[in-house]
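Duplicate of #3305? Posting structure anyway:
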């Protein structure tokens, strides 16, 4: 499989971080335990670079942003814990290669600098969609690349996953891809986005697809179900699926819970061997 060593899904509620969540952390113990297990696996791999796709990074409506500043840094200041900081060097070579492979697939891409015309909400620090997974999963020494979602279609996100894999192979980087995202925000009455009975149905579908590795079924999801769920992680999961295109996989959902009305899934997907039968053409 070249240099892409592992793909994983991580939720990103700041309440998971003990310095932020304090006494509430006990309610997300399953997620914290699963992330600790995943962190141990990543440390064993010893990756050069973590590539994180976050739905909370600055976003273009019709393009992707691939960012790797010389120093990537952020804190949980807006969540009351400014002393908790994440800092790592950006992998500028890998980021450049990812942009090149995205362009080769006919999609617009930017570097995320403030000069990029049309950039909305640009911020000097990395967002909590990256910070929370990195708090748990970052090994002692690593480089970092941040990738935004886009308002482009799901197939475009699938192709970005492919581009991440191709760039990892081309640069020889040992890479771990982290698909950051929460599932339905409408699981319970009083949930952040309100309640919808179909939120639980959506989460069951995603947990089943990721757990089985039948990623082609992502393209069969009912658009009305996706809309009802009020999710923020589906595009990241499509990118994860694309990174594994054409390969047999070993997948496992390590945990799922939704104590605050938002679905949190921790999962891993390990590429095993090339399998042409699992190579998708555009749905």
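Output from current build:
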């Amino acid at each position: 499989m070249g240099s892409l060593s592992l793909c994983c899904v991580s939720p990103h509620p700041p309440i998971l971080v003990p310095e932020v969540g304090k006494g509430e952390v006990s309610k997300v113990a399953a997620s914290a335990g699963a992330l600790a297990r995943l962190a141990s696996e990543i440390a064993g791999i010893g990756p050069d670079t973590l590539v994180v796709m976050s739905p909370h990074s600055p976003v273009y409506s019709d393009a992707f942003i691939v960012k790797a500043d010389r120093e990537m840094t952020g804190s949980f200041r807006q969540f009351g814990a400014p002393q908790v900081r994440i800092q790592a060097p950006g992998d500028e070579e890998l980021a450049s290669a990812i942009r090149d492979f995205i362009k080769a697939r006919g999609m617009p891409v930017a570097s995320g600098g403030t000069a990029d015309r049309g950039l909305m909400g640009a911020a000097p620090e990395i967002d909590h969609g990256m910070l929370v997974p990195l708090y748990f999963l970052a090994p002692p020494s690593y480089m970092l690349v941040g990738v935004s979602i886009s308002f482009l279609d799901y197939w475009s996100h699938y192709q970005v996953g492919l581009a991440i894999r191709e760039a990892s192979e081309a640069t020889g980087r040992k890479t771990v891809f982290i698909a950051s995202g929460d599932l339905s925000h409408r699981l319970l009455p009083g949930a952040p986005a309100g309640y919808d009975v179909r939120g639980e149905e959506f989460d069951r579908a995603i947990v089943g697809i990721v757990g089985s590795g039948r990623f082609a079924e992502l393209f069969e999801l009912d658009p009305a179900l996706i809309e009802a769920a009020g999710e923020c992680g589906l595009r990241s999961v499509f990118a994860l699926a694309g990174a594994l295109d054409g390969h047999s996989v070993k997948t496992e959902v390590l945990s799922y819970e939704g104590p605050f009305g938002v679905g949190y899934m921790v999962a891993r997907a390990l590429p095993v061997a090339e399998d042409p039968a699992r190579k998708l053409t555009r749905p």
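Confirmed duplicate; merging threads. The chain has eight helices and ten strands. The two ends are 24 Å apart (CA to CA).
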